[in-house]
Amino acid sequence: MARILILAALLLPLGAQQIDYSLFDRLAEKAKESAVVNLGPEQLSLLAGMQPKEGGKELAELVRTLKGIQVRSLEFDSPGQYDLNEVRALGEKIKSSGTWVPLITVKEKGEFTEILIRKGADGRSDGLLILAAEPKELTLVHIDGVGDIGSLAKLGGLAGIPEIAGALGESKKSAPKKAPASKKDDE
Amino acid sequence: MNPVDPFERQLREVFRRVEPPPGLEQRILRRVRPRQPRRLPPWLAVAASLVLVVGGSLGVMRWQERQHRQREAERVRQQLALTLEITSRTLARADQRLRSIGVERIRLQEVSSWQEY
Questions:
Q1: Which residues span the domain enclosing A42?
Q2: Are the CB atoms for A127 and A117 separated by under 8 Å?
């Protein structure tokens, strides 16, 4: 019995870090369009070996920090194809693990967007999760190894990868600088 | 009867048939006939063929592997591009909503650790 409890305790942190995509997999059958991305460290390492003419070295260095990418994006014909409460419950489950911290939450009637960051063992952020629920679109982006949008934005423009422009006032050229103050500002 | 003319006697001696030395015919024929090419020992021919086949196969396999890796890398690049496209679109919509409620700009400051919050 003691062995079973120890095993369960060892597995708990693993379970906490896993994100359950079954809701998206189930809703994909109803969606008009769906996009799925599953990239692991081995596949991402192939990008590090690419030698595009521009920014090859920079791309390799940035891609080395990525450990995994999972994306589920669903587009529906009409509103009401999914239960928003189920999506909210998924967001709460992710946050309840204790490793994901909400950075920005935007809520409106019938939709919400949440951006979460995962804190690593060393105290630095090492994961980014975006959960967006709209009447006709449902999106989850989980990027492991990147803790801020600025780092992700650096990938844009390299090897034909599009830039993240105009997102939350940031762009590749105007990435936030390290500030001596520790508080986050909302203007 | 006339005595044999010394000149004629000399001529007859010169043109007297002389038997060729033994083996002369073979020597001449050998020089005239083209030399037969030297044949490689069978084992050497087999070994050379094996080396060519194995080396060629390895080369083809490596080339195919490299092509496969390049195709995979391109597929990964496309998926990464799709990820950033979806991320950009989602963040842009969040940005739009924030602006609609009067938040003009959110500046994210990088901090060295969570303890600084």
A1: 21-153
A2: yes
The most confident of A10-14, A25-29, A107-111, B17-21, by mean pLDDT: A25-29
Does B63 or A182 have the greater pLDDT score?
B63
Q: What is the DSSP letter of B95?
A: H
Residue A64 lies in a domain: yes
A158 located within any domain: no
Mean pLDDT of all residues in chain A? 77
Give one DSSP letter per residue of A121-165, joined into a string.
TTSSEEEEEEEEEETTEEEEEEEES--SHHHHHTTTTSTTPPP--
Cα–Cα dist A126/A17, whole Å: 12
Q: Provide the H-helix boundaries in chain A.
A: 2-17, 22-27, 41-48, 56-65, 84-96, 149-153
**pLDDT value at residue A161:** 66
Q: How far is CA B6 from CA A96, B13, B14, in A?
A: 139, 11, 12
**Residue A176 touches chain B, beta carbons under 8 Å:** yes
Question: Nearest CA of chain A to the CA of B56: how many Å?
Answer: 26
Query: B98 and chain A: CB distance < 8 Å anywhere?
Result: yes
Total tally of structural domains belonging to chain A = 1
pLDDT, one tens digit per residue, over A47-72 is 777 665 556 677 777 778 888 999 99
Residues of A within 8 A of B105 (CB-CB) are 169, 187
- Gap between the Cα atoms of A117 and A107, Å rounded: 18
DSSP label at residue A55:
T
CA–CA separation, A138 and A25 (whole Å) = 12
ipTM above 0.85, yes or no: no
